[in-house]
């Protein structure tokens, strides 16, 4: 697998995307349930930001909210802003968002079989993206799609264009999704668990393809995953989420070498590693709280080995513990 890139954008650089104090809730018959609370993070140009946490921590909802893809009568974007190229996507109309979705910001989903339409050929589905966002002729669209398929290392691209999703293996379908996401040369690609459904060999190949394409096109990635191995391989910086909140953010190496938040420490400690002397890994006891049963204060206090009285009362302010390294935990809160 190729090396992680080292030409990370400077910390002072104006971010490509800035999510500030995002709060997203769902109205139910009984209550307004908050899924994402006061979430803030930046994505710099050309970098990969990893977002980690167990299922139900608010990773996907935070990222889908960037394009207002969490939709429905019961969805409430209650607070916050998502600034992309200086404009707030949360205040945009659907028509304005259509110009950004798939053109400037695109998404890669976990399961390509559900994201691709089984009734249309790969060529039809890829071509549709370019028809929507460019003025290319039919032939130019066909050539561009074939070129992108070759870039994601799919041989016989012209033949693959005529096939249906079910004719392809899982790894090939995920490469098609990556090719589709990058067809319009977007500024930002949001990849939601893009390799979770793949076996490790294919996963390594797909990650390699994504890194090579990033080098070539200079796009930024948001990588959502619960797999810390993928994060250490791909991300320049990491945001750790728990209970719909950001609990820690740092450069990837810093986070793995000096994790502060008890949740981050628990995640890192529960990773398998080479030369393990035991067949039982440490686990974080308990489960992620459900939306309608979120504890008050720090949502991790029911599972935290270091919980104190104050943890049950209020959520801690974010504290800087190093350069570009912040943590939201009462243990490090400034007195
Ligand atoms: Fe644990 Fe308290 Fe820190 Fe939450 S704020 S992670 S409960 S020590």
Summary tags:
335 residues, Rossmann fold, four-stranded antiparallel β-sheet, 11 helices, binds iron/sulfur cluster, 22% strand, globular
Can you describe what's shown?
The protein contains eleven helices and twelve strands. The chain has helices at 59-64, 94-100, 112-115, 122-133, 138-151, 157-161, 170-182, 200-217, 228-234, 252-257, 262-269; strands at 17-27, 32-43, 48-52, 75-84, 87-88, 105-108, 188-192, 220-225, 237-242, 245-251, 319-322, 325-327. Residues 1-9 have low confidence and may be disordered. The longest helix is centred in the middle third of the chain and has 18 residues, at 200-217. It has a domain at 14-243: P-loop containing nucleotide triphosphate hydrolases (Rossmann fold), CATH 3.40.50. The chain has an eight-stranded mixed beta sheet with strand order 6-7-8-3-9-10-12-11. Strands 2-1-4-5 form a four-stranded antiparallel beta sheet. Strand 4 (75-84) and strand 5 form a beta hairpin. The protein has 335 residues and is an alpha/beta fold. The chain binds iron/sulfur cluster. The site of iron/sulfur cluster has 14 residues, from loops. Iron/sulfur cluster (SF4) binds next to loops.
